Amino acid sequence: MSLLVRINAVLVLGVALAGVLVGMVSSALLRAEARREVLGTASLMLDSALASRTYTANEIDPLLEMQTQSRFPPQSIPFYAATQNFLALRERHPDFYYKEATLNPTNPRDRATDWEADIIQQFRRDPASAQIEGERDTALGRSLYIARPIRAAADCMSCHGLASAAPAALIARYGRDNGFGWQAREVVGAQIVSAPFTEASANAARVFRGVMTATTAALLALLVAANVALYFMVVRPLRKLAGHVDAVSLGHAGAESFSESGGSEIAALSAAFERMRKSLEKALKMIGD
After folding, report:
1. C-alpha pair distances (Å), 152 with each of 47, 185, 261, 273
2. Per-residue pLDDT tens for 40-57?
3. Could you give the residue ranges of the DSSP H alpha helices within 167-235?
């Protein structure tokens, strides 16, 4: 096997390993960036829902307080306001999801599904946990979600403590069976926002393919350049040197002198062969004389 072939085998192996390493690193970075972007959007939407709840509690609830004596307007409840606001958003963005999931809600639509109940139980098992992030499959594709715990505040107890102490208007609207028995500071639910991950993942895959195409082209160009450099700097001078050595070994009197051109190592080798050639000529002359 020639020197050029063996060197190429090593270069190809190195290029392949470099390509695999670049692929693994870029894939991980692109996926992490796509995940960060989607979770950032979900976090912004969750903060928007919190802002809607705060506005309702501070601005709307005082205006409707007098009406709650005779009837119960759900618009006065921050949970309801945040949910309605998000439902309007979902009309244009159906792949986003928001829910204030509760284990024992007053309004049945807020009842936690199985996967939402699992998240709530995680918050209950770990009271110090402030946020949970994860992935899940939906009918519209892969989604990322952010969840934050809902704790029963002191002002919730008037409606969600004992059913006997709840406002009559609330009982008249929702009945006595659900939404009661909460304990102050107890985790009763979770705010959950899901944002689509499929599109962001597909964009990351497209960028990855572009990166790998450019990387492959660059590595191939490097391989070609290395081959050209090896041929002109190492292989061709060595072949020429081998031809001269072969001519001298066959006793050709007209063998030309060894050229000391090329890299320092090739030049040093040529100089050594040139000294050997001269010494051999002198020795042959002495024998002939």
Report:
1. 19, 5, 87, 93
2. 888 888 888 888 877 777
3. 168-174, 198-230
The full set of domains in the chain, from first to last, is 12-205 (no CATH), 223-288 (1.10.8)
Q: Which letter does DSSP use for residue 77 in this model?
A: S
Tell me if the pTM is above 0.70.
no
Task: Tell me the H-state helices in 56-142.
Answer: 61-64, 78-90, 114-125
